[in-house]
Every structure is written in C-alpha cells, then in structure tokens.
Amino acid sequence: MIVQLNDKSYVVTAGMTLELFIKSLDVQPQGIAVAVDYEVVPKSKWNETKLEDGMALMMIHAVSGG
Prior knowledge:
Layout: E1 2-5, E2 8-11, H1 18-24, E3 32-36, E4 39-41, E5 56-61
Parallel strand pairs: 1-5
Antiparallel strand pairs: 1-2, 3-4, 3-5
C-alpha cells in the first residue's frame, strides 16, 4: 500500500496504524498534529486509525517563538 505524507510517497503494510507509521518515521509525537484526508486525527485515535492505500496525510510541527 502507498500513502502520501506531505506530498511524499511511503510504502506501508496492510493494517498499519497511524501510530505505528509515525513511530516508523522516527518522529517524536510531541508538538505534531496529523491530518488524514484533511481531517485532524487526535493523538488518542492514532492507535486505532488504520492506514489505507492512497490516503493523504499531512504532518504539522508546532513551532514556538515570537
């Protein structure tokens, strides 16, 4: 299966959850938000959100400053 994350293609296994996908990227989950097909998925739902072929994901990193 192939998903798009920020316009880059990734091959994922069938049944992979959003949580496992984020972990596989070696990204710290603190300070990020993820949208699946333009809908933000709360972190509490990452472990039950199954990725499907062709999904469009967007990862946004929070930046502090002023």
